[in-house]
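INTERNAL AUDIT FORM
Audit reference: QA-55
Scope: verify that the stored structure record matches its stored sequence.
Auditor: D.O.
Record contents follow.
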Amino acid sequence: MAPFSKPETVLKQAEGLVSVGQAHAALQSLTEMFSSKRFRSTPLAALEPIMLRFVELCVDMRKGRTAKEGLMQYKNIAQNSSVASIEVVIKRFVALADIKVQDAQEKAEKAVALVDVDDLEASETPESILLGAVSGDQNKDRTDRALVTPWLKFLWESYRTALETLKNNARLEGIYQQIAQQAFKFCLKHQRKVEFRRLCETLRLHLSNVAKYAHQPHSINLADADTLQRHLDTRFAQLNTSVELELWQEAFRSVEDIHNLLNIAKKSPRPAMMANYYEKLTRIFLTSGNALFHAAAWARYYSIVRSVGGKSEEELGRLAGQVLISALAVPVGQESEEDEAKGRTARLTALLGLTKTPTRTGLLKEALSRNVHKLAPPVVKNLYNILEVTFDPLTLCSSVAPLLKELSSDTNYASYLPLLQRALLSRLLAQLAQVYSTMQIAQLLDLVTSLEGSFEGAYGPGQVEAFLMSCARRGDIRVRIDHALGSLTFIDEAFGSTAAGPSTPSALDKSIQPSAGELVRTRLSGIATCLHNALGAIEPSEPAPAAADDSSAQETFAQLVAAANAERKALQVRRAIVARRRELVSELSARKDKEEASRRAEASRREKDEQAKRTLEDIRRKEQDRIRRDIENIKKEEARQLAHSLKEKNILKVDVAEMGDLNTDNLMRLQVQQLEKEKKEQAERLRIIAKRLDHTERAIRKEERPLLAHDYEQQQIDDRAAFEMAQKARLESAKLMHQQDLDTKRRLARVMDDYRERREVYISKRGEEYTKKREESLRRVEEEKAKRRKAVLKAREEEQHRLEEEERLEREREEEERRFEEERLAEEQRRAEEEEAAKAAEEERKLEEEKKKAEQRRLREEERLETEKQVRLQRQREEEAEARRAARRLEKVAPAPAASHVRPERAESPSPWRRTAPAQPAVPVRQAAATPPPIESHSPAPSKFVPPARRGAEGAAAGGGWRARAAAKEGGGGAVTPQRPASPAVPADSPKAAPKDADGFQTVVPPAKGVWRPTRGRGGGTRGL
């Protein structure tokens, strides 16, 4: 890589290369400068001319990719300091590309106009005419492809490059929107539909990436009102361009983009902007054939225009006609068609800002409520009256035909004629279905004959029949066509569907006669009405019944009323219960949905937070790594530059390329060593020079010593001659000055007498004036003294009064302070008394509370003792029951007792799992269960294990354990009588009552001896043996 040069040098070098025809070399030199690392540290004031020249070269040579790379690097450098510089460069780039396109178009026009003709007088032959007709336009196309198309491609590429350079940067948002609108104008001017679609997709992609790059500096913030407004302006320009290019799908996507941006906006946009929005929607819906939403868009546009104002009566009348005729053009079966695509309908409804799906009836009612009928032109009014007000199917088409012919001459209404024809035929068939059940096809065609020729595109007989079949297929009308008889049969089934279409009265706003289905539905109610009227005519109401009948009738009526009221109340209760249950179910489901949504939102938020934290951590780590690498690279670059500079200055005598560890410290150390070495060499050279000078000076002095005496004598002679000449000149000048002064004295002596006389005159005059002024001054002094004396006396009196007033105020202040002190002491005494009274009351309250607490402790202690007593009784009962169950089990197991072989068992002892009380003394039980069955013991080892459940029945004496077994063994090994507690009475060694301060807690009783307890659970109890 070549060494970095100054920007001015690079620019001059590029200009020189361009001047000699080396444009590619000039562009290469500028591109190499961009790739240099010192390019970022170059001032923008020096870079901007280089960038302008760079983009000029790129445009001249159509180097779009090179221009994009250079603009990207320049944007990264200048976006933080000078946005205006980027705007200048981008605008210059696009303007140069546009100029090149215009030049190419002019050249192409001249090339097509200046066609070489060999002989101007030669007549045209049939071959030349045919060839010109075939290839004339092709010559122009070839010329355009050769000259204009390459520059058009480059201009389109320049727009894309500018948008890619300026995207997703808040500081460059203004120029970004300007370039986008210029690109729209380019597509509209040159009719570039494909490029316009790509441009729209690019803008949508940039807008969708706003959230993706939100963490970057200078990111786009759509919450900002100005930024959102700029985006809306661009999208409206996109919508206008797409409508002008007749790209209706792209226009619809643009409308969706605008709708999404309007949902983000915090404040409503300008009414003029929304009017343009709805006006473009009307064109889009009309082109797509959606008459219903086209009419709804016109209604929204009309409401905004009326609210804004500023329109003349003629313009309002034209708009009113548009609104009314668009609503009339909606086919009668439009609602049923829209029900098939609810998702698309909801989407279009949201685009129009409506809360519910529009209908033909609703649009007409809204139009009438806005006085559209009064403002509309007469032809539109007549059309509305014929289609919506009157009922005359035989003259309907003949009445509407002149109106349609008149509307066809107006460009504003001509596009509605096909839709109005469909609405007219739908209305005609609906009215005919009300009047006729069967009619001839020829008669129907005669009714619509008047429409033929009234406007371009009117239906013929075949098209009318096709329309009739399409209505039947959609279910708008129920009709059967018999071509053999040439008749139409309108089906009106009595038990058919109630939503059959226009052949039923429900499809019309009004009906002149009921249908068969309606007659069936209302037959019973009609019969009941007729019977009631006949009964009233046959047996009119009598004046008054007898008293008995009256009372019985009243009782019966009262019972019926009571029963009806009871039934009504029960029904109301059931309804209320059902409604309440529904409310509870809905509330429960809503609560569950809300909780689930909150949980999902919380989980999503936590996940997003964690993801954001991880992203920020990765970004921070990558940024730290990048900064560390940049610092290392900068240090290496600085060391390399320092080495080169030292090498160029001949300070560093080593080869930089051979130094492995090239850093600033090593270079500084080498530089210091080199400087020390040079300093020593210079000191040595100075010492040699000083020694040489010393020897030279000594030789010179040795040679000049004999000449000094002669030089001194000559100097004395020269000094004396100079002194004498100076003295002589001084004396001559003094004599001359003295003579001049004497001449002056003689001239002044002649006027001395006149001077004295004049002086005396002046002194006499000035003396009188002086005397007068002196007397006046003395008088003024006396007056001033008098004034001063009066002022001093007055000031003294005022001072005296002031002192007296201050003394009075001081006395009053002292009295006030004394009074305040007395009041403060009285207040403190009162507060002390109140505090003493409060303390006494507090002590009394505390005594009462202590008494209450003592009473509560006593009650709790009594309850605890009672509970312990019940627990002991229950435990005793359980032990007795356990002993009885053990005795019964022994009786069943061992039926033949053998006293000599029975091994003494341990006495009844509490289970090791029950440690609440010590073992109770055993007493003899009844004789019936005293003798246990004999058990043969072949190995009467005293260590034989006995289950705890059998110990209570087989134990010997109270106390149990090894002492009881030993005593039984010494007594002769007789039969051991099982014992149990005598009664559930409280034993003598029952645990003592807990102290009074136990506050309801039960003391743990130590276990009986002979029961093993773990060391950790023993606490402060005594270990059993």
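Auditor finding: record pair retrieved intact. The CA atoms of residues 475 and 807 lie 114 Å apart.
Action required: none
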